[in-house]
Write a structure and sequence with these properties.
Blueprint lengths: L1 E2 L2 H14 L10 E7 L2 E10 L2 E9 L2 H33 L7 H13 L7 E3 H12 L1 E2 L8 E5 L15 H6 L5 E3 L11 E4 L5 E8 L8 E3 L4 E7 L1 H5 L2 E6 L5 E6 L1 H14 L5 H21 L1 H12 L3 H11 L12
Parallel strand pairs: 7-10, 10-12
Antiparallel strand pairs: 1-6, 2-3, 3-4, 5-7, 8-9, 9-10, 11-12, 13-14
Helix pairs in contact: 1-2, 7-8, 7-9, 7-10, 8-9
């Protein structure tokens, strides 16, 4: 792995802090007046991908005009913050932080702007691994490319915003990127994944499986979509952290706590079918890289994650132990 300079690490922390506060952006939004039966009404007009969207704001009166002016003032005030964030993103990229591909950034920006991560979504898998590297101040020497963007959500955990929802299917299908629902083996089950037509790139929604084994998709109210249930995903999602991706003016997302991510990757490597042997190797590699950084800088995080793992039951621990045998002895979490 390559360690990022102190200046680059500081730029990351500054960008993360800056992104905690919304910088209102009116790009692509306009206000239009419509005459209906001799009365004028005001609407906001924008596009989601290529689809035009208009939403009713109110009658064209003094009160509505005050709302319009207030919104425009927020856009103007946010411009300074957006420029500052864009400069920090540039500093991160110039300092060697991993850049998102154009497609990866475009999709992640769409999800972040829609509120997916405010409503409890957590980025997992390889995209999370790459962001965890930046969070820890390193760039992995082998950054695995991926065409999968997995979003996990635990409906039993509180979210930042709990009185509204987003419609994941509509957001993706209206994006103009060509997303379509992926059919399920059981045609009676709703889709849990979306794929760009003619490409391999996909977005999948996942959620913890609790109780008896059941592969039936789980309806996620805050996303108005179905998620595939996976055993032991609750361990990964119990502690999450904010992270920022170096794209555009910074994309604020949620990722798993790094030590839990590493231990969960060990377990995941043992739960994959034989047809996914290459992915199992990648799982163990990613766990090893994260453990290597934490063992040197914050071994207490590994101890805490291990204590939590022991509460997951014998099966979880047996699978983790089996995978840990493939790590260098000095990185085996059970013998640290």
């Amino acid at each position: 792995m390559i360690e990022l300079s102190h200046n680059t690490q500081n730029a990351y922390l500054d960008l993360l802090a800056a992104c905690q506060t919304p910088a209102f952006d009116g790009k692509g939004i306009s206000f239009v007046r419509k005459k209906i039966r001799d009365q004028y009404y005001v609407y906001t007009s924008t596009k989601v991908g290529q689809a035009p969207i208009q939403r009713y704001l109110g009658p064209d009166n003094e009160e509505t005009q005050k709302l319009v002016e207030r919104e425009k003032a927020l856009w103007a005030a946010g411009e300074v913050d957006r420029r500052a964030r864009a400069i920090l993103v540039n500093q991160l990229l110039a300092g060697g932080a991993r850049a998102l591909t154009a497609q990866e950034g475009k999709v992640l920006k769409l999800l972040e702007r829609s509120g997916m991560f405010l409503y409890g979504g957590v980025l997992i898998g390889t995209p999370a691994f790459n962001l965890i590297g930046t969070m820890l101040g390193v760039v992995w020497s082998d950054s695995f490319a991926t065409s999968d963007l997995d979003i996990a959500v635990d409906t039993q955990l509180p979210v930042v915003v709990d009185d509204k929802s987003v419609d994941l299917t509509q957001i993706l299908e209206d994006s103009g990127m060509g997303f379509v629902e992926v059919g399920m083996l059981n045609p009676k089950h709703p889709s849990t994944a979306y794929k760009i037509r003619g490409q391999q790139y996909s977005v999948e929604l996942l959620t913890p499986m609790r109780g008896k084994p059941d592969s039936k998709p789980v309806y996620i109210k805050q996303f108005n979509a179905a998620a595939e249930p996976l055993r032991f995903l609750d361990y990964l999602l119990h502690e999450i952290q904010p992270a920022v991706a170096a794209f555009d003016t910074g994309l604020l997302v949620n990722v798993p706590e790094p030590a839990r991510f590493a231990l969960h990757k060990l377990v995941t490597s043992q739960r994959r079918p034989a047809s996914q042997a290459a992915k199992s190797v990648k799982d163990i590699y990613q766990a090893e890289q994260v453990l290597k950084v934490l063992a040197d800088r914050n071994i207490g995080a590994i101890y805490a994650a291990l204590e939590a793992a022991e509460k997951m039951g014998d099966k979880f621990m047996r699978q983790m132990e089996a995978a840990a045998q493939q790590l260098p002895k000095e990185l085996n979490p059970l013998t640290l």
